Amino acid sequence: MARITLSGIEKSYGTTRVLNGLDIDIADGEFLTLVGPSGCGKSTLLRIIAGLEQQSAGDVAIGGRVVNQIRPSRRDLAMVFQSYALYPHLTVQQNMETPLRLRDLNGWERMPLVGAAMPGRGDKLETLRGLVRETAETLKIEHLLERKPGQLSGGQRQRVALGRAMVRKPVAFLMDEPLSNLDAALRVHMRSELAELHHALKTTFIYVTHDQAEALTMSDRMAVMMEGDILQLGAPDEIYLDPVDRRVAEFIGSPRINMVDGEADSAGRVIAHGIHLKRTLGGAHKALSIGVRPEHLDVLPGGGDAESWPFRVSHKENLGSDYFLHGHVNGGGQRVIARAAPELAAQVSLGQEIHVRPRPGTAMAFGADNRRLRFAEA
Amino acid sequence: MTGHASPFSEALKHAVLIIGALIVILPFYVMVSYSLKAPHEIETNTGGFFGAQEQMVDEYCVKLGNAREDCLETPAIFNYTQAFKKAPLLRYLANGVIVTASIFLIQALVALPCAYALAKLKFWGRDMVFGMVLVCLLIPVHAIALPLYIMLAKLGLTNTYASLVVPWTISVFGIFLMRQFFKTVPDDLIDAARMDGMNEFSIVWKVMLPTAIPALLAFAIFSVVAHWNDYFWPRVVITGDRDLYTPPLGLREFRGGSDGSDWGAMMATAMIIVTPLIVAFLMAQKRFIEGITLTGMK
Questions:
Q1: Cβ separation of B191 and A47 shorter than 8 Å?
Q2: Closest chain A CA to residue B297
Q3: If pLDDT is split at 50, 70 and 90, which confidence band does B64 have?
Q4: Where are the alpha helices (DSSP H) in chain A?
Q5: Which end of chain A has the smaller Cβ count within 10 Å, N or C?
């Protein structure tokens, strides 16, 4: 149990900079997710925390102690890999024992023949077998202990990999896309299981993923990373409802947030695709992007008003509980998606021209530099 | 390609393969056949594959003053017993085992860490070192035989096991082969071992070696076959001491002496020498196919 502090972490490979001076303070017991598209540096950052990679500048501190020069195994962290990385020639039991043996037995006791003669080795082995059994029970994998990784399914391997990380009772778990090799149903199931595990263990989790749904569902806080920078760090709700950057708004949320072009006159009044928004910005802006989430667009099959966009439906996506209507507003080039209840969507046919209206107070404005522009409080 | 070749081209393919197989098998056929036949059958080329296996008189035994009736032998049994009597073949076989086993063990001991470093560690000049390894693959043994011999002679190592083993302990081919295999081992596995607390040497022996068994087995076959059958190098460095003869050198004992070449016994010796290799290969072949799958990784 410890708090992990990253300050000014930079990483370059040759002349290519992949991390641009990152600062994060991770509280003890927190579930922090690093989320971003591939190549944003999130895995590199995790490997720097683990000690598998050396940062070019900056400090990693675990529990107040700077660990820059400390070997991965001595940092008392455990890592779960995307490929699980189980030792293919060892049984599940031996896989889970390995980190304990390496930590708790000395060099002599690990020797093949000499080891058996060392006093006290039997007791130590007994304790560590107990730890393995205990962990296996928590994860419900006792019946797999004698099998080899090759005989396990993806989900079982995933649990074993978790078990191998858990036996050591590390101060923090580092997870590098641990669910991305699982099929969709199992992934959703493991999401809730991991979150429960986090509650039960009360240990710090640092979780890397490119899947915004995993980040939103599991994290206490999430850091959205792009091109080596943290764009926003905060609770999932805050990131979703109040993104500070256009790229954050677009990355988080599925389906993607709708962006329509707009501009603001000198009084700060915003016109987006022919409709005036009620709220005003501080000043004039030439090129604005107005973001509205699909669930914040009201679908009006009958007729529009001055505050709604004409919308030609080009595709209906049925998710059972909801429909997503894809189309274009005002015949413009940008694709817009609106969420509709099934009863409402039933009244809409493909190719029909209907209206959609952004719910008041939900639109977000982003400037040409991607930064969020705040509306004046009404 | 549709996958449907004409019957004619299929027949042609098979004909070529059959001729090739015959060319390879013919010397073995002759070896097995001669090892079973009596000398007069070998010389007159009669008796088919097995020979008539009639009782024959061992002339050497008669020369020693025994009665002709006491010197009657069955050719096949006679040839194989001769192989062990005329030369200390067991000793030669033991030498062969000692030499090939030591060579392979030391080769593996050197090649595995080298291959690991070349495949998985990042260090300055790694690609250049690997380039040098590749260049070494191109140097034929015979080109450096003389300087090697002189070196060993100056060290006073000729006529020792060391002279048979030491020159082969660093196998460039082994390093290359294992490096190519290690390249396919996922980095995650190595990182997991580092997180678990293994140092780089433990990773080589406890993680890389067990996953590399199929590749190591392939290398073992190359290495053991090459050095078990090697006639050239033992002939160069073992000049006097017959106790150090390897099996191929032992074959020389049956070369024409005063009573002519003893082909039957010589071929029986050859059979005895190649049998362990064939058995070992058949066993290894099965392991090859089973292999150790790396499915635990994905």
A1: yes
A2: A85
A3: confident
A4: 42-50, 92-104, 107-110, 114-117, 121-138, 154-166, 184-201, 212-218, 236-241, 246-251, 342-346
A5: C
